[in-house]
Write a structure and sequence with these properties.
alpha+beta; 856 residues; six-stranded antiparallel β-sheet; single chain; eight-stranded antiparallel β-sheet; 39% helix
Length: 856
């Protein structure tokens, strides 16, 4: 910013002041002014009777003049033609603003006043004007603050200098840009006593629209202590609901002047995808078409168009009645990309559901062809694109084994482009869609039959050469796709033909053929350009029925296990003697982990209504699943110490260490997985980790390692308790032989629960295995009923626990009889003491006798 450095006077002069009729027929002038915190000489053309002089206008008072003007709060001239007032500056100063603080009454008398800066006191008109004359609107505001910005350029003796040369700016609040609650606000420089308005305005979709600033900020303080910004005050723009916002945008006439703002606001509003219904989506389509109709090759507008289309895809519209509206988003996007490509611009945008690119390339760069590639996540498609997932390659260079969808243009494109255009560059634009939600087909529903469903089985990819018609190619276009469904019986290469179904369009295979598969990718060859995909006839009726049976078995088993585990945990917590030893504490933690795992699974596995809620459920299932298997391995460690090591040094803080391991390590793993790929943490059909690296390395691999560990410990324990029985007998007192046998039985039972049933799950991973269904069934039955097995083995089967519950029930019945007898006797006034002493059959006696009968 450049300000002016002045030496001389600052004068306030009136040239167009209208005649004011006072008790005497003269024209007079009055004003109040304060600029510097110094007593500089002042003067005025005349002084009205009753006023001190010109100095009251320079009295350190920064606020508007409110009160009795006869108390010398302002200077006041007599009635005269073109009155003036000035202050003499003895030194050199940089003047950015002149601030006039008007009076409360007769404020309109300042209309037409002109501030001038210079050295002449004889002819004030010859001095440089500072700002424009005071307008009638500014002068009419009672007790107002009028700011005149000195931006007029001048010649010597005044020169321009940077503002940074000024050593004191206590009279000015410096403009700044700051972020508050995620929103950026920018405020200009303003002097003391002035309220600044942000340069950001209310959105077009708000009630107030673009004419209202988002926020205000007052410049407070004084000339002694300096200027200081007050907190930001947000204005109430009146946003309303998402539907109301879109309706307001729909009512706005889109022009070149406001197209950038309208498109940006449309992208912001449509980001609330959960609030978009069919009616509002239709309005969005109309507004987007109006933006695209302007054919503005602007990068910001194009980015907003892509974001709007991405948001609409996220709504997953699929109703046949919305086919025309859905397709209009495809055509709007292609038209905007064509506008950008025609302007020779290079543009790239990758959103979660759509990626686009426009390129202006020389013919030499197309000698080896050009490929546009969307990468996969190994052998599965990514749920959402990331910026690095979509790239262009030389046709011969891209990694085919990582392709999710790709389209390769042959060198023949060069000849066609040069023959049909006179441009030196070939202008091409690409598009890839994550799903087919904008391509609603009427024929797919009719083509599906009993036992199978025909559906789009891949991502959709397209390429277009701007202003060039591509048809009947000798060297075909090569499109490759990773099928979305692995169990497809039949695949067909298709493209979207906009001429079908009365101009709405539908899938067609004309001019396309399948050229086999490679690395699990379907290769299609077509002699023209458009939107390509593959259709899959997916035979899943029998599979779905079996999966429904497995789901039912799992849910029933989970409910049964939840009840059994709740009783198991309650039993061990209620009776003190069953929670005092290490094996019992480990059992409690294992049961608690399994209980929470079954509970979250049964309640939340199908709660896919909200994305964040589904991710939370998936993360909890991940966590409690890992915690359960960790506690199973802790059980294995404890058995190893008891039966293999037998005599070993006591491990200090054993339970504290295993608790940190059993609960802490799974938490770290889940947090890391969420940090690496939180978007890959749930599916559209259920709330669990879908196939991919997160499930492979963050869940299955860890369970496999711990399972292998459990099996090894199981073998060692079995060997120690069977083959090494003589060795055990030498180390263990013969009187405890029954306890050893009992531990052997429990060890076998627990080891089966902790390891062998999980093997069924690993055998069921291979989708091509003929025995997969059998292992899936075994896995569902044994693992969903694991809580039942624990309850039977460690509650029902244990005599001391059965005796404890019997004694508890007896005491409860006796207590009821005592209460009844006491109430009866008291009613007669004869009974003094009806307490019943505990017998040898009491809980105390039983617990003491069974204390040595330790459970594993």
């Amino acid at each position: 910013m450049i300000a002016l450095r002045y030496t001389g006077i600052i004068a306030v002069v009136t040239f167009t002041l209208p005649r004011i009729v006072w008790p005497f027929d003269q024209e007079e002038y009055e004003q109040c002014c304060r600029i510097f915190d110094k007593d500089f000489p002042t003067n005025e053309s005349s002084t009205r009777t009753g006023y001190l002089s010109a100095s009251p206008a320079f009295d350190n008072h920064t606020g508007p003049r409110i009160g009795n003007i006869w108390e010398a709060v302002c200077s006041h001239t007599t009635n005269e033609y073109e009155p003036w007032w000035y202050v003499d500056l003895p030194d050199e100063y940089v003047i950015e603003y002149i601030v006039l603080y008007n009076r409360e009454s007769h404020s309109d008398r300042l209309e037409g006043a002109q501030v001038r800066v210079g050295t002449s006191t004889d002819n004030l008109k010859s001095n440089v004007a500072c700002g424009n004359p005071v307008s009638s609107q500014d002068a009419s505001e009672s007790a107002g603050v009028i700011v005149l910005k000195c931006e007029n350029g001048t010649e010597e003796p005044w020169t321009t200098v940077p503002v940074t040369d000024v050593t004191s700016r206590s009279h000015l609040c410096i403009g700044e840009e700051l972020k508050v609650n995620g929103t950026w606000y920018s405020f200009p420089d303003v002097p003391l006593g002035v309220t600044a308005y942000s340069i950001q305005y209310c959105p077009l979709y708000s009630n107030k629209g673009k004419n209202a600033s988002l926020a205000t900020r007052h410049c407070d303080g004084d000339f002694v202590s300096g200027a200081v910004w007050r907190p930001i005050v947000n204005e109430d723009c009146g946003i309303g609901t998402t539907s109301q916002q879109i309706e307001r945008l729909y009512e706005i006439e889109v022009t070149e002047a406001n197209s950038e703002k309208v498109s940006d606001d449309l992208a912001k509003v449509t980001s609330n995808t959960e609030d978009l219904d069919e009616e509002t989506i239709e309005l969005v389509a109309v507004v987007l078409e109006a933006i695209v109709d302007l054919e503005i090759p602007d990068e910001k507008i194009t980015l907003s168009v892509v974001e709007v289309v991405d948001n609409i895809i996220d709504t997953d519209i699929h109703d046949l009645s919305m086919r025309g509206t859905a397709l209009s988003f495809v055509t709007s996007l292609e038209r905007q990309l064509a506008t950008v490509a025609a302007a020779g611009m290079n543009f790239t945008s990758v959103q979660p559901h759509v990626g686009v690119m426009t390129l202006a390339v020389s013919p030499e760069s197309l000698v080896d062809g050009l490929a546009y590639v969307a990468f996969s996540d190994g052998d599965s498609l990514k749920k959402a694109f990331e910026p690095h997932d979509v790239k262009t390659y030389n046709q011969k260079e891209f990694p085919f084994e990582m392709v999710g969808a790709s389209i390769a243009l042959p060198p023949e494109i060069i000849l066609l482009g040069q023959n049909q255009t006179v441009e030196d560059e070939i202008r091409v634009y690409f598009t890839v869609y994550q799903s087919s939600s904008l391509f609603i087909s009427n024929s797919l529903g009719n083509a599906s039959g009993e036992g199978f469903t025909r559906q789009v089985g891949s991502q959709i990819i397209s390429a277009t050469i701007e202003a060039v018609e591509i048809d009947g190619l000798v060297t075909p276009i090569k499109a490759s796709f990773l099928p979305r469904v692995k169990a497809g019986y039949k695949t067909e290469c298709v493209f979207w033909d906009f001429s079908l179904d009365n101009g709405v369009g539908d899938w067609s295979s004309e001019g396309c053929e399948q050229n086999g598969t490679a690395d699990g990718r379907v290769v299609c060859l077509c002699d023209h350009l458009t939107n390509f995909a593959i259709l899959v006839d997916y035979y899943r009726h029998k599979h779905d029925q079996f999966q429904d049976v497995l789901t039912l078995i799992s849910l029933i088993g989970c409910v049964v296990s939840i009840g059994c585990l709740a009783v198991t945990v309650a039993t061990h917590l209620y009776f003190k003697q069953f929670r005092s030893k290490r094996p019992q504490k480990i059992l409690i933690n294992l049961s608690l982990s399994l209980l929470l795992l079954y509970l979250v699974f049964a309640i939340g596995i199908e709660q896919t209504g909200t994305r964040n809620g589904c991710i939370a459920v998936a993360a909890l299932i991940h966590y409690f699943g890992l915690a359960s298997i960790f506690w199973m391995s802790i059980e294995a460690v404890n058995m190893y110490l008891m039966f293999v090591k037998v005599f070993y040094d006591e491990i200090r803080y054993f339970m504290l260490k295993v608790c940190i391991t059993g609960y802490g390590v799974p938490l770290v793993i889940v947090v890391l997985c969420l940090g690496v790929d939180i978007d890959h943490y749930a599916t559209e059909n259920y709330c669990f980790i879908p196939s991919g690296n997160v499930r492979n390395y963050g869940f299955i691999l860890i369970i496999g390692i711990l399972l292998l560990f459990n099996v090894v410990v199981f073998v060692l324990v079995m060997r120690a308790l069977t083959c090494g029985r003589k060795k055990v007998a030498n180390k263990v007192d013969q009187m405890k032989k029954d306890i050893v046998i009992k531990r052997l039985q429990n060890a076998i039972a627990v080891s089966v629960l902790l390891g062998l049933t999980w093997v069924f799950g690993f055998f069921a991973i291979d989708p091509e295995s003929t025995s997969r269904d059998v292992f899936q069934l075994l896995f569902c039955v044994f693992n969903s009923l694991q809580g039942l097995f624990i309850f039977l083995l460690f509650c029902v089967r244990q005599k001391d626990i059965r005796d404890a519950w019997k004694t508890c029930c007896k005491n409860s019945n006796r207590a009821k009889r005592v209460k009844y007898a006491t109430d009866t006797s008291n009613s007669k006034g004869k009974v003094k003491d009806q307490s019943i002493p505990l017998t040898g059959d009491s809980t105390h006696g039983k617990n003491t006798a069974s204390r040595n009968n330790e459970n594993v």
